[in-house]
Amino acid sequence: MSAPAPATPSGPADGPAADERLITRSPLKKLLGRPELGAVVGAVAVFLFFTFAADSFLQLSSLTTVLYAASTIGIMAVPVALLMIGGEFDLSTGVAVTSSALISSMFSYQMTANVWVGVGVSLLLTLAVGLFNGVLLTRTRLPSFIITLGTFLMLTGLNLGLTKLISGTVSTKSIADMEGFDSARVVFASTLTVGGVHIKITVLWWIALVAVATWILLRTRYGNWIFAAGGDADAARAVGVPVRATKIGLYLGVALGAWISGQHLLFSFDVVQSGEGVGNELIYIIAAVIGGCLITGGYGSAIGSAIGALIFGMTSKGIVYAEWNPDWFKFFLGAMLLLATLLNHWVRKRAEETA
Asked: In 3-state terms, what secondary structure has residue 2?
């Protein structure tokens, strides 16, 4: 009977240091692993470009206008980015913003109620749209593209049909003289003066949403669920991730963003055109993609979506300050989308190679 083979002594490679959780990564590898790296490079390039192309671009008033334009997109780009990280789309976001504004305005006007009552009703109904999308998606397992495209078409029809039925025109009646309007405007559409610089309150809403979304993604269990559900939903279910509840929560988050944007739209202009918002859903998705979110899900960041929205703001206003024909705006936006996507792909590939 032969003696058992002697145990092979374990070297350093077999000890705890071999655990990938204990491997220290260099700052360069950490930097290359950030999903928003490509967006940062793109934002710097766009900023430098318009700094030389437009003489007035660096004026404080111009920069605050850029921030305002970015914030109106960024408020929606943040929850859309989280939804994309979770592996889903929402094509109804643009018209949902308009729906939210229309509900607040028409309910307040028709019921002669305090404007805040209309704002509250709008919140409930907008969240109901998000809940509808999320529940239908998880119940039927249909692609989110199909479900939210259907919601987009239904909301577009309801916005126009109900507005004409109730108001007799394609726009709402002014509610500027109604009780509660001034206080609601302070919350959703006021301008703050800091050191002589005028900043729209939407910038603060935007920063707050980015901070909360980043905390959720990086510091909470729900954030882990979002990445897991977007990376591989079946594998996530197998290890106990509540994929269904996670995705419903993401659609509710998108609805909340639509409500905030809708109230800003209403209290900025007093009235709302029922046909507004069509096409904006693509801009929100573009901002998220430029910011590093993958179409396939499981990868991205809230900060990246904010940088994508900032690129949009710099491009849209930079063209104006450079006194170029605004017809070129869509060309520049499309070029930025392609370049940022290619750069993000290259950065992610390098990160995987150096991991």
From this structure: coil
